[in-house]
Design a protein that fits this description.
globular; alpha/beta; 2 domains; amp nucleosidase, domain 1; 5-stranded mixed β-barrel; 4-stranded antiparallel β-sheet; 10 helices; single chain; Rossmann fold
Length: 387
Amino acid sequence: MKKIMSITADSFTKKDVKSLCECMEQLFDEGFYPHLEIYREYSKHNPRLSGEMAHPKVFYWYLIRELYRLLKKGASVQLNKKRARIALDDPSLLSHIDEGEWDFTKKKLFLFSPERVDLSINRLLHYTGTLPELFQRYILFTNYNMHVKVFTEKFPDAVLPKNESVQMPAYHWVQPNNTGISLVNIGVGPSNAKTITDHVAVLRPDAMIMVGHCGGLRNHQQIGDFVLANGYYRDDRVLDDIFPIANPVIPNYLLNSYLKQALDKRGIEHRIGTVFTTTNRNWEFSANETVQKIHQSRSIAIDMESATVATNGFRYRVPHATLLSISDKPLHGKPKLSQQAQEFYNRSKKLHLELVLEAIDAVKLHYPEGLPNSSIRAINEPLMNGV
């Protein structure tokens, strides 16, 4: 292991931290995983932490923020040249990206292995048609081109995918220090929702928000009303073997608070409750079992992505929330029909996105350095966050 650069808490600036991150990128370009060692004299039980990183350039905003926090608290940072990169077509890669062999709760500097980051960065480019470094700190997921249209009209300088025929095209309103907003059209279904959040999570965004439509399940809801999730019924099943169904998954309280403030400010009808996420778009064709679960869970809406996004958000320690708009009422004689659906889409698309953007503005105003995430971190894992 060869020492490349070190910074101590005695005398440092953000420029020093930036220089260290640039050295990390140079090491990566030379064919090595940059290796960081952090010494925290103030930590009684875990004074030394270490970790390796891939594609540091993609994470500059995150690395600079978190390393600066650590140094400000009294830590020292050392960059080393230690291990050569593994090619993505090397058969040994598999043993380094298997999350079953990677303990998320073990104290370490980075949540993911560098090999896992390397592969996800490559797949983000493949799925979204945009460079991973374009992703901003606030990421929205939608199923509809109409939300893309509203987004690009509001942000005419947004960076578009080079090829919009990719599976999940992404659009980026790029701002300094990655403080802008990215919108990804993930298509329909929990499988897509899992795929994209598996890879987006390595970027360590400050928030992920599902901006979708749902079926309203209560009699007094109307088409166009909004649903703010405070819990999920995980009938999507795609993560059950990875993340036990008994584990509670709830959205970020602060994100929900700002979304509710945006709704209340405009006097918009909405309900807060459980969102039922199913993997079966045609559940109405065998309704008895699903309806029983709906009644038992007191769910107020049904969709196909929200619980999946939320579960991966919780699993990967990313603050998350869900704001849905009711497009049909399948239990009350108002199924989603083509003409009525188009009329609803035209009425709701602009308002829906505006509400979420207002909430993000509030988050950025009150928490410019990122939302507190202690509620989605285990008690024995500091990650970065200067702890």
